[in-house]
Amino acid sequence: MNGSMINAMVSMNGLQQKLDLLADNIANANTVGYKKKEATFEDLLTNVRRQPEAFNQPGRLSPMNFNQGWGSHMTMVQPNLSQGPVKATDKETDLAIEGNALFEVEVDAAGNRAYTRNGAFQLTPNANGDTILATEDGYPVVGRVRDQTGALVDGQIVVPQGYSLRVNPDGTVLGVSSEQTIELGSVKLLQATRPAALTAVADNLFIIADGINQGDVVQLIVPGSDNGVTVNQGYLEQSNVEMTDEITELISVQRAYQLAARALSSSDTMMGLANSLRA
Fold it and tell me: Model's pTM, two decimal places?
């Protein structure tokens, strides 16, 4: 297999991964809180070669040295956490983050955590029979609540029976009834300091891969004017996918894929001609 075939094959593989990524973005253009994925490419090893001295003929103008590349490949996929448009729903359990922050949820009984921008929550009973704030898939939303000693700890946001939910812009959660208003804690928000270390998984969630320190990727924040983060109740953040950008990029990648396929076909044709030559 010659260099041109290797170059074309490697490039087609990377472009196919890019096409799959664009297709995923387009498919989730209407998914609440979805963050589009972006890919990073880099060249593979490039060799500096020199043609045989037999090519050094009188009148030659081009240099004897040349670079031989081996295509490019996808090195990293990371989420684009830019703000998406916010839509009013007037539903008390719908929350939208404005600014750079993520909700934290419990994904299993072992206490493993995941992160999301999808604030389409609901009130659902937990294993203890308490009504808690959870995602549409049943994952409890992690809040900052006070324990028996009065210290702030991570825990589920429990809404007592007969109380409605109120969430202030600073993330404080209140229970409101006709008689009184009680404090239920606050929504836990984390700011992504290294978005590239977040891995997208099912149910519109992000996780941190094993072996990476959580504190190096996300940090606890308190919404406020100093960081530009607020929580809006009765709103939902829409996907930040711009269809015009994705379709334009899709066309560009398709053209590059066709060009690489044509190079592979031309290389195969030339090899066939060389093999059919007779002395």
Answer: 0.82
